C-alpha cells in the first residue's frame, strides 16, 4: 500500500510529485529545498534583475530546508527521530560543506541518520542546498 503526502507548510514541489510517499514502514521524501512555503522566496537570497546575487546567506537556506523537512515529516505523521537516510545536494561543496556540516550537527546530534553529501552543478531553482530523506515508521 502506498500513500501520498502533501502539505501547505512546505514549499510546493516544482514538478508533478508529492512532498512524500509512504510505502509500508518507509517514508520517502521528495527533494526538499529551502524555499518559503508562504511566498516561494528563498531565505537569505536576493537577486538583481539579471539573476546575479545581491545577498546570499547559506545558513538561512540550511535552517529553512530543515524547517521544510520537519513540515513534511509532521504532515506524514513522522518525527525528526524517524529519519534514517539523508542525501544532501550542495551546489558548491568547497564553499558550503563546513557550514552545512556544522548546522547539520545541531539538528542531527541525537538522530545519527546515514548521510551522503554530493555536489551538483545546479538545482531547479536558484537554491544552494536540497535534501532527499527516508524515514522509518515501523516502530510507532
Q: Which terms summarize this structure?
A:
six-stranded mixed beta sheet; alpha+beta; 60s Ribosomal Protein L30, Chain: A; 140 residues
Walk me through this protein's architecture.
This protein is of the alpha+beta class. It has one domain: RutC-like (60s Ribosomal Protein L30, Chain: A, 2-Layer Sandwich), CATH 3.30.1330.40. Helix content is about 25%, strand content about 30%. The protein contains two helices and eight strands; from the N terminus they run βββββαβαββ. The strands form two sheets. The protein has a six-stranded mixed sheet with strand order 1-2-3-8-6-7. A two-stranded antiparallel ribbon has the order 4-5. Strand 2 and strand 3 form a beta hairpin. The longest helix has 18 residues, at about 60-75. The model has no long low-confidence stretch (mean pLDDT about 95).
According to CATH, the homologous superfamily is: RutC-like
How many β-strand runs?
A: 8
CATH topology: 60s Ribosomal Protein L30, Chain: A
Whole-number count of domains: 1
Strand content: 25-35%
- Largest sheet report: 6 strands, mixed
Structural class: alpha+beta
The mean pLDDT is: 94
Into which percent range does the helicity of residues fall? 10-25%
How would you spell out the order of helices and strands? EEEEEHEHEE
Shape: globular
Major beta sheet, strand line-up: 1-2-3-8-6-7
Number of helices: 2
Amino acid at each position: 500500500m502506498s500513500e501520498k503526502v502533501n502539505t501547505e507548510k512546505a514549499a510546493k514541489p516544482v514538478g508533478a510529485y508529492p512532498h512524500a510517499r509512504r510505502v509500508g514502514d518507509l517514508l520517502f521524501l521528495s527533494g526538499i529545498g529551502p524555499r518559503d512555503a508562504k511566498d516561494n522566496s528563498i531565505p537569505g537570497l536576493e537577486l538583481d534583475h539579471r539573476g546575479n546575487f545581491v545577498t546570499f546567506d547559506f545558513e538561512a537556506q540550511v535552517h529553512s530546508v530543515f524547517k521544510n523537512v520537519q513540515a513534511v515529516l509532521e504532515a506524514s505523521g513522522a518525527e525528526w527521530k524517524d529519519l534514517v537516510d539523508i542525501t544532501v545536494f550542495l551546489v558548491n561543496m568547497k564553499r558550503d560543506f563546513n557550514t552545512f556540516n556544522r548546522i547539520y550537527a545541531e539538528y542531527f546530534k541525537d538522530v545519527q541518520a546515514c548521510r551522503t553529501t554530493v555536489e551538483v552543478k545546479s538545482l531547479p531553482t536558484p537554491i544552494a542546498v536540497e535534501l532527499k530523506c527516508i524515514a522509518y515508521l515501523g516502530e510507532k
